[in-house]
Write a structure and sequence with these properties.
- The complex is a heterodimer of chains A (251) and B (292).
- In chain A, 77% of the residues lie in helices and 0% in strands.
- Chain A has 251 residues and is mainly alpha-helical.
- Chain A has one domain.
- In chain A, helix 2 runs antiparallel to helix 3 and helix 3 packs parallel to helix 7.
- The two termini of chain A are 27 Å apart.
- Chain B has 292 residues and is an alpha/beta fold.
- Chain B has ten helices and twelve strands.
- Chain B is globular, with a radius of gyration of 23 Å.
- Classes of the chains: A mainly alpha (251), B alpha/beta (292).
- Chains A and B meet through helix 1 and helix 5 of A and strand 5 and helix 3 of B.
Chain lengths: 251, 292
């Protein structure tokens, strides 16, 4: 695991040195600031509005970060031939995959925490209370971000980055839909649609923005189950990614 | 027993599917050779002969379509044998926001080596990158990137060095330095598998050569065998048309009939001498002088 750890740090350093991360982070923070500047009807509504849309903004930020950080990692490594000296000798393919994933996951988590701090700052500027569940809610979005990251890695081993973006975004949208909503897309085959939806990821478990915005309390066990689900699904996607990567010829 | 052949390639074939699934292209077809302990084996062939494909197969970057590759008796994917290999890829490139020192430190950690910064300073000095330790690779020329690649390959004191065109694009001084390092590594005990277009390099440092053409092995043997096989003769005659001396090189078997034919045509033969055969002659004869 030492090789994976070192390669994760190498990936982390590399991503911090690229402009992509800072560009995406700036866009998310500007979007949050934009949400906060939208006038609302009264003070209690404004707090709910900022929290609701702020957390939604962070969630969309997780998707953009996953794509912006990882969609091009493997294709770029292959194109620039930086992959060859790595995978030929010091690293196995699984070590390469995990090293890249953990490095990107850490950077993504750090960036999402910064956006959470940005949201807290906006609430403070507006003299609004910071809900106790804001940080756990961000943690759930981080786990969702890791799931999205693993999906991006999976697609990156057999598609180009321009195709990876719509595929991951599509999965992101589908993963937000309830079984009934998804079955409603093709009413003629509800049974099949329900089965397909059950197999596809359920990212809706990571969304607690509505209860938080409305001031409801969330049981700690819910967080644990949601995190466990997210980590299991990420591991599953990474296993699929590794299976594809192992079978690939690196020309 | 396991250390007798650091590298054994047995009946290796590699086919790539054509675009749109229209059949396949055979890049390498049923080749077999080995690299013995302490040998420097040259791997030569024209562009597209299958050299890089073979090297990528033996490093596990490509999955062979047929055949077997063994590194000290193990599969190339075995992490234990991979640790014993140093690899210089063709046209190496690295993440250009890092410095050589950062790369060496991280590679050392990934390889589980215990070296310290001072060791890597010495290594960088050895490959001619002294003074460039902390400069980002973005500022490096192609030759410097190749030196960097050599440093990474030598870092673990490998038992087998696999080099894919390591001196391509280098100036003559750098090529000489590369050759000297390869010989030093060989004296240390490393076996070397050297793919190169530069036949003079192969002729200077290799014990044996493997020649590929069109994905097939067309000649293999020690340089002594390859260069000393068929004797070549050089005949110098005076051209009837221009009046100048013209040379012809031919194998011993064709010599007498050519002399008879020249005498029949009353062409004056100036001299007949033994021609020293170069690896280039062997290569041209083995591949038919065809660049495809």
């Amino acid at each position: 695991m030492r090789a994976v750890f070192t390669f994760s740090l190498m990936t982390l350093r590399m991503l911090f040195r690229r402009r992509t991360l800072w560009g995406i982070l700036m866009v998310i923070l500007l979007a949050l600031a934009g949400i906060a500047s939208v006038p609302s009807f009264d003070v209690s509504n404004q707090g709910r509005f900022i929290l609701d849309f702020g957390l939604f903004g962070i969630e969309v930020g997780a998707l953009i970060l996953a794509l912006g950080l990882a969609a091009n990692l493997f294709p770029r490594d292959r194109e620039t031939r930086t992959l060859m000296p790595l995978v030929a000798v010091p690293l196995s393919r699984w070590q390469y995959l995990l090293g890249r994933f953990f490095g990107a996951a850490l950077v993504q988590a750090a960036a999402l925490l910064v956006t959470c701090l940005g949201l807290m700052l906006i609430l403070l500027i507006h003299k609004l209370p910071i809900p106790g569940d804001l940080l756990p809610a961000t943690l759930l979005i981080i786990v969702e971000g890791w799931f999205l990251l693993s999906t991006v890695f999976f697609f990156s081993f057999f598609t180009s980055p321009p195709l990876n973006w719509p595929l991951t975004t599509m999965l992101f949208i589908v993963s937000q839909m309830s079984v009934a909503e998804f079955a409603g897309l093709m009413p003629s085959t509800p049974g099949l649609m329900r089965t397909v939806r059950m197999l596809l990821p359920h990212a809706d478990v990571f969304h607690i923005k509505d209860p938080i915005a409305h001031g409801f309390e969330i049981e700690p066990v819910y967080f644990l189950i949601a995190i466990f689900y997210g980590l299991c699904y990420s591991a599953f996607m990474l296993s699929l990614a590794l299976a594809v990567f192992r079978g690939r010829d690196l020309k | 027993m396991a250390d007798i052949h650091p590298l054994q390639v047995m009946g290796l074939s590699k086919q790539f599917p054509r675009k749109r699934g229209l059949g396949s292209v055979c890049a390498v077809s049923n080749i077999s050779f080995n690299v013995g302990q302490g040998e420097i084996v040259g791997f030569i062939g024209h562009n597209g002969a299958g050299k890089t494909t073979t090297i990528k197969c033996l490093l596990g970057l490509l999955n062979p379509s047929q055949g077997k590759i063994s590194l000290w008796g193990n599969a190339p994917a075995n992490p234990k044998v991979r640790k014993r290999i140093g690899y210089i890829p063709e046209n190496p490139d690295y993440d250009d926001s890092f410095s050589p020192m950062e790369y060496l430190t991280m590679f050392a950690s990934m390889r589980g080596l215990s070296g310290v910064e001072n060791d890597w300073m010495k290594l960088l000095k050895r490959v001619g990158l002294a003074g460039w330790e902390t400069t980002v690779i973005r500022q490096f020329s192609k030759g410097m990137r190749q030196r960097m690649s050599l440093a990474l390959a030598l870092q673990s004191n490998p038992d087998l060095l696999v080099m894919d065109e390591p001196t391509g694009g280098l100036d003559p001084i750098a090529r000489k330095e590369f050759r000297e390092i390869i010989i030093e590594e060989n004296r240390r005990g490393a076996s070397v598998f050297l793919s190169s277009h530069i036949l003079s390099d192969v002729e200077t440092i290799c014990n044996r050569a493997v020649i590929l053409a069109g994905g097939k092995l067309v000649a293999e043997g020690s340089l002594k065998e390859l260069l000393g096989g068929d004797k070549l003769y050089r005949i110098t005659v005076i051209s009837r048309r221009t009046g100048e001396e013209v040379e012809e090189i031919m194998p011993e078997a064709d010599l007498q009939s050519r002399i008879d034919s020249l005498r029949k045509d009353n062409l004056p033969i100036v001299k007949v001498e033994l021609a020293l055969k170069s690896l280039e002659d062997v290569f041209m004869a083995a591949t038919g002088g065809d660049s495809q």
